[in-house]
Hints:
The protein is of the alpha+beta class. It has one domain: Cyclic Phosphodiesterase, Chain: A (Alpha-Beta Complex). Helices cover 31% and strands 36% of the residues. The protein has five helices and ten strands; from the N terminus they run βααββαβββαβαβββ. The strands form three sheets. The chain has a four-stranded antiparallel β-sheet with strand order 3-1-9-10, with helices on one face. A four-stranded antiparallel β-sheet has the order 2-7-6-5. Strands 4-8 form a two-stranded antiparallel sheet. A hairpin with a 6-residue loop joins β9 and β10. α3 packs across α4. The radius of gyration is 17 Å and the shape is globular. The chain starts with 8 loop residues before the first strand and ends with a strand.
Amino acid sequence: MGSGDASLKRRLFVALMFPPSVQEEIAKRCAEWGELKQAFGGRFAREFHITLKFLGAVSEEQIERLDEAFRAALEGMVSFPVTAGELGAFPTASVARVLWWGTAEGTEPLQEAARRVERAAEPFGFPPEGRPFVPHVTLARFRRPAALRRWIEQRNWELQTGSRQGFSEFQALEFALVESRLRPEGPLYTPLATYRLAAA
């Protein structure tokens, strides 16, 4: 990564990106939930990942230093499996602005990675989040609050009883520092650096 124009800022976050096969699975599940778009105006994500920390606008001169800090902070972490948990919503299922899919396996190492990234970013002026980190994949966003409690309860019951499948288990092999470029058709995500995890 070159230093470039120090005045230029880029929209960045640190995340666990999902493999293409799992991306396709989640997109297929979302396509089955067309009622969310029709009834609530939901807009489904086009690419799926678990954000460890959203940094926002980052200057070119900070990117290389942050990369070094994150690489050091995540050193020694071991690869781990990730499996689908329950569906949920922010801020609540009754007034949902964001629909998400949580994790079952992989929750603790994701929380540990988020803590490490938070500590590494703080000296650069990126304050820690004021709420507990909940590992999740954003599925859809709503322009107006959506009353999704019953819908989420029904989908989670289907997941628990096996009548509906979650996404397939996969092995988390690396985290990434990602640039997000906003476009009318949805954001474009470009990894700028990757942080390989040690073999389990």
